[in-house]
Amino acid sequence: MVVKETACLTVEDRMAVDEELAADTAALDGAGDRAIITAVRAAAYRRDPRSVARRAAHAVTERTVSLRPAPDAMTYLTALMPVAQGVAAYAVLVREADGARAGGDERSRGQVMADTLVERVTGTRAGITGIDLQVVMTDRALFQGDSEPARIPGYGIIPAETARTLLLDPERTGTEVHDRQDLALWIRRLYTAPGTGELVAMDSRARLFPAGLKRFLQVRDDTCRTPYCDAPIRHHDHILSWANGGTTTAGNGQGLCEACNHTKETPGWSAKPLPLPGLRHTVEMRTPTGHTYHSTAPPLPGTPWSAVDLWAIHTRSPGSLPPPAAVKNGVQVLGRVIQPA
Predict the structure, then answer these.
(1) Does the pLDDT at position 277 exceed 80?
(2) Any residues with CB less than 8 A from the CB of 141 and at least 6 apart, and which?
(3) Would you list the DSSP string of 268-297?
(4) 3-state helix vs strand vs coil in the chain, percent to 5
């Protein structure tokens, strides 16, 4: 904690802060982390106010919002922002919750705060109007009560019952739907290849991926296709670049996070799709060190994890993958079979 809070100081000032705090350790006896951090910050500010102010100004530029999965089909929506804005936003949510509770609302304080946040951000009390969630599930799970889990691209697997409730009975998701016309439900059919669950390809003559093809890639890839990266998809990338003759097609397209897409364009990196009929979409990536990795799109709901057979890839495309002995050492990471060369 001391190292972190004094990182902006010179070596001499860090030593001075350490000496100041160590001179009377009894003053911090029994103090928690927050109290210790406050004491360190105060000492650092006394030594070099300008450095501390510059550090705070830089921190403002790193404000952001992130989303990560939580257990039981829940999620953590986290915002990093300046303290004044954060305190103000929280105070508004508290005020709304207290007012609703005082008026007889039976929801808990936390529930009202969460619902109010969604309402203020999305602009609707239902919270999902105009937002494309792209819940992916089999027709059996949607209409026949099958237990095959559904998937929300960028989030992961949710129980089939939860998906049906979200689509067919939104009032049970924890948010009131005061106007049924506010909630629009669209069902898109996804055609897959028998046995493997590979999405049937679609193409475009455009340089940029059209909206429909972007949705296709989002559903197929779920998260960033770079091996070992599970960040949300931010860019829709030509695996073989447009400048080098790559086409704007599902076969030559992949979903990447922003960082991986920029990294892929640096010297030494290359990628190509492996057109192997009967298998899920696979990309071969070569790094500047000469190592080769393969990333296979995760299976859609209703298709088995074993649908991708590395031995079949080796058989159909001799030389494109390592020999069988090396294939045995492949690992499956976050739904993708990763095989280093």
Answers:
(1) no
(2) 147, 148, 149, 150, 160, 163, 164, 301, 302
(3) T-EEEE---TTS--EEEEE-TTS-EEEEEP
(4) 40, 15, 45
CA–CA distance, 171 with 179 (Å, rounded to integer): 11
With b for 16 or more beta-carbon neighbours within 10 A and e for fewer, the 113-146 pattern comes to: bbbbbbbeeeebbbbbeeeeeebbbbeebbeeeb
Tokens of 256: 């990447």
User: What is the rounded average pLDDT for all residues in the chain?
Assistant: 76
CA nearest neighbour of 335 among 308, 283, 299, 284: 299
State pLDDT tens for residues 245-264: 888 888 899 999 999 999 99
- Contact residues for 330 (Cβ-Cβ < 8 A; gap 6+): 310, 337, 338, 339, 340
Q: Give the burial string for 169-190 (b: 16+ CB within 10 Å, else e).
A: ebeebebebeeeeeeeeeeeeb
C-alpha distance from residue 276 to each of 88, 224, 301, 307, 308 (Å): 55, 21, 21, 13, 11
Domain ranges of the chain: 2-60, 64-122, 139-182, 203-338
Q: Cα-atom radius of gyration of the chain, to the nearest Å?
A: 26
- The pair of three-digit structure tokens given for residue 219, joined into one six-digit string: 């559903």
Residue with tokens 């209409």: 143
Distance in Å from the first CA to the final CA of the chain: 42
Spatial contact of 324 and 311, defined as CB atoms under 8 Å apart: yes
pLDDT of residue 280: 83
Length reported for the chain: 341
Encode 67-87: b = buried (16+ Cβ within 10 Å), e = exposed: eeeeeebeeeeeeebeeeeee
Looking at residue 175, what is its pLDDT?
A: 47
